[in-house]
Amino acid sequence: MKILVANLGSTSLKYRLFDFSDGKEELLTRGGYERVSDYAQTIDGCLADLKKGGFIKDDSDLAAVGFKTIMARDINGCVRLDEKAVEAMEFYNNVAPAHNPPYITGIRLFAKRMPNTPLVGLFETAFYQWAPEAAMRYAVPDSWYKAGVRRWGFHGASHKFIAERSAELLCREDVAQRARQLYVDGGASPVRKPNLRVISCHLGGSSSITGILNGVAIGNSMGLSPQSGLPHNNRVGDLDAFALPFVMRSLGLTLDEVEKLMCKESGLKGLSGGVSNDLRDIQAHADQGDARAQLALDVLMHQTRHWIGAYHLQLNGLDALVFTAGIGENRPSCRAAICKDLDQLGIVLDPSLNAQAGAQEGVISAPESRVKVMIIPTNEELVVAREVKRFLGKQN
Length: 396
Fold this sequence. Notes:
single chain, Nucleotidyltransferase, domain 5, 2 domains, six-stranded mixed beta sheet
């Protein structure tokens, strides 16, 4: 059973091919294309690469193509991406403008090229289906809620990977099993006491924090859209709703102009005064004394600590604080700033382990730290492939 996972961006296609034959779980190959202008041609090129490399003989060797889809109206979890599902994704094009349109384009082109191959999507909102309702509601009229205005949560594949892998590393196979089977039995797998309490920090070009209790999410810092929560590379993060009508009236902006500014010119880019949307560039400018660049770093660290504190309280304590994704895995200075002066919460970083970690999986907390501070490189594509495999198994 070979499953191709396609990660589609507005101008990119990245892929990984997994083999689950005979009970194994193997990454056969990976690759990608940037500056894509013709998706049909790029998909043809991707499949040609797999054949040229000897990974498949023809398209029929693929059991399925999996997608890390974002959100859809009235659809969640791991589902077959038929035209009904794609139309449900279109409903949220304006809420996820950087994500849904390219996925919809790619899915339709894959369906045209491979009409007999199952196309399966694991929605990023799936991990939050079992979070408490109070954590997922906005204080809006009921008609708004019925229209879809609620906290959905995102980065679900990444945080689900952390839920499972952190439990394995902490020798809680019962919790790991619950996380593995979550989309199969809805969290019914039994776990023993004490509770396992984890906070997962997915920090990268797009960032979010999730609280995880016994392998199941209790909430996510993102809300209705992937533009919410922590400041992202060039997306705004949390913003008072009345800021939109205020700037439209005060600055004479149209709704389209405001949407573009929130999605393209805000976040770390906006905070840094337009220095960059890449934290590495922002850090370099901050090291040279650029106050606006330093402010961008400070706001990201402050917001990260804010959400860690919120979930620490909701979880009634903490067993592990996990850093993952591009910034979380690779920026010791950011991890140090986030964990600074948290000893009263049981979080004590080992400066030497933190500095030498090199984005490798492991513990970076001090021996006296009551909370294990960990780096776990995420693997969203593997989560998608695993869930597609389970989906196919249910269909047979």
